[in-house]
């Protein structure tokens, strides 16, 4: 399937998705609509077990956030409609049933930083910046809602929201936002290394784990535990579940089916 703003490359069950919308990888309404189509494609393709989301090197940012051109002349009703589109696209991508590694090789700004937050794992380059500049456009950043699930320190988040200033990767290192901070030329390599390891797992177990982990974030402890355990009970008796158990007992490498 061909996309206007995204290039896809699949290797060893890892799909490298490259966001390519020069000059800055800004998120227009058209991009958000394509994210909805992209998510469905990634979910439907059973060859894919893990996704790496990168930005094209020719663009100024990994993800520059909202395309400000979309806001010229918007009235209240039109702004609410755009929010519905944005929420739909982000929620679908967040609920993608395959793990997503964000290979952040360049800046992540505003809605771009929010997009990084809804990925599962983040690998970021040294000496790039992150910001939530909506305050300088006379608007809000949804109160930083996307970062609550990450236990992002409140004080640091509010400094991002209230100042709109650029924070270098190293300034956010102690927030837990990043899994790894590496030299820029190592970002994609490290991201693909993580994704390749993940892609060796049972696709059914990966999907169940992703769905359960997302569900637990909005459920209470007891309800979330029961939800995840129901998935586990079903998986244990499946072909992949039994293969994982036997491989461990027989001290051999698992041979999961590729569908």
Q: Can you characterise this structure?
A:
The chain has 259 residues and is of the alpha/beta class. The chain has 2 domains: 6-198, 2-enoyl-CoA Hydratase, Chain A, domain 1 (Alpha-Beta Complex), CATH 3.90.226.10; 203-249. Helix content is 41%, strand content 18%. The protein has 8 helices and 12 strands. The chain has helices at 29-44, 76-94, 111-117, 154-163, 187-198, 203-218, 221-236, 239-249, and strands at residues 6-11, 14-19, 26-27, 50-55, 61-63, 65-66, 100-104, 107-109, 121-125, 129-131, 167-168, 180-182. Strands 1-2-4-7-9-12 form a 6-stranded mixed sheet, with helices on one face. Strands 5-8-10-11 form a 4-stranded mixed sheet. Strand 1 and strand 2 form a beta hairpin. Helix 1 (29-44) packs parallel to helix 2 and helix 6 (203-218) runs antiparallel to helix 7. The protein is globular, with a radius of gyration of 19 Å. The model has no long low-confidence stretch (mean pLDDT 91).
Helices and strands, with pairings:
Elements: E1 6-11, E2 14-19, E3 26-27, H1 29-44, E4 50-55, E5 61-63, E6 65-66, H2 76-94, E7 100-104, E8 107-109, H3 111-117, E9 121-125, E10 129-131, H4 154-163, E11 167-168, E12 180-182, H5 187-198, H6 203-218, H7 221-236, H8 239-249
Parallel strand pairs: 2-4, 3-6, 4-7, 5-8, 7-9, 8-10, 9-12
Antiparallel strand pairs: 1-2, 10-11
Helix pairs in contact: 1-2, 6-7
